[in-house]
C-alpha cells in the first residue's frame, strides 16, 4: 500500500463511524478504510472531473472506492444529492475509464450509458434528453483516433526504419 495513502487513512479514521451517505455535510478530500475497501471523498466541478473546493458553487461529491476487482469505482452526486455519474477506472488518478459508465442529467434522469475499454469508448452508447426520451445511439469501434484514421485509409501505417 502507498505510504502517503496509509497516512491519509490513519488521519481519517474518525470518519469511518458514520456511513458516507448518511453524513450531514460533504467531507472534503478524505480517505477512509471501510472494511477492506479504501474510499476517497472529494468535490468536483460541473465537468464532473476537475477537483474543486468544498465551497465552490457548482460542486458535486465524488466517492471513489478501490474495489477488490482492482478497479476504482466512482460515484458522483450533486450538492442536491442527485446521482450525476457512475463508472470504473483502471487507475487511482482516474484517468483511464474502463467498464460501464452512466451519466445523469441534473434532474437525475439518465443522460448516457456506454462502455469504455482501457480509456477508449466501445460498443453502442445511448443518450437521452432531460425528459428521458431517446436522443441518439452511437457505436464505437474501440479503435484509437490514430488506428481509426489508418483503418479508414486517411493515413498510412507508419513503417519502422532501421538505423
Percent of residues in beta strands = 35-45%
- Identify the strand order in the major beta sheet: 1-2-3-4-5-6-7-8-9
Number of domains: 1
The global form is globular
| Mean pLDDT rating | 79
Order of helices and strands: HEEEEEEEEEH
Structure description:
The chain is built from two helices and nine strands; from the N terminus they run H-E-E-E-E-E-E-E-E-E-H. By secondary structure, it is mainly beta. The chain has one domain. A nine-stranded antiparallel beta sheet has the order 1-2-3-4-5-6-7-8-9.
Summarize the structure.
The protein is mainly beta and 163 residues long. 10% of the residues lie in helices and 40% in strands.
List the helices and strands and how they pair.
Layout: H1 3-11, E1 30-34, E2 37-44, E3 60-66, E4 72-78, E5 83-89, E6 99-104, E7 110-117, E8 120-128, E9 134-141, H2 145-151
Antiparallel strand pairs: 1-2, 2-3, 3-4, 4-5, 5-6, 6-7, 7-8, 8-9
Any descriptors?
163 residues; mainly beta; 9 strands; 40% strand; disordered N terminus
Amino acid at each position: 500500500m502507498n505510504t502517503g495513502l496509509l497516512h491519509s487513512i490513519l488521519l481519517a479514521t474518525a470518519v469511518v463511524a458514520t456511513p458516507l451517505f448518511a453524513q450531514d455535510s460533504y467531507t472534503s478530500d478524505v480517505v477512509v478504510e471501510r472494511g477492506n475497501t479504501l474510499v476517497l471523498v472529494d468535490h468536483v466541478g460541473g465537468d464532473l472531473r476537475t477537483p474543486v473546493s468544498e465551497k465552490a458553487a457548482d460542486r458535486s461529491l465524488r466517492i471513489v472506492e478501490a474495489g477488490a476487482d482492482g478497479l476504482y469505482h466512482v460515484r458522483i452526486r450533486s450538492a442536491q444529492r442527485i446521482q450525476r455519474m457512475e463508472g470504473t477506472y483502471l487507475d487511482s488518478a482516474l484517468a483511464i475509464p474502463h467498464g460501464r459508465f452512466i451519466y445523469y442529467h441534473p434532474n437525475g434522469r439518465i443522460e448516457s450509458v456506454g462502455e469504455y475499454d482501457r480509456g477508449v469508448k466501445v460498443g453502442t452508447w445511448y443518450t437521452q434528453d432531460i425528459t428521458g426520451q431517446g436522443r441518439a445511439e452511437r457505436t464505437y469501434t474501440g479503435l484509437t483516433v490514430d488506428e481509426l484514421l489508418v483503418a479508414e485509409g486517411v493515413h498510412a501505417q507508419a513503417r519502422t526504419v532501421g538505423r
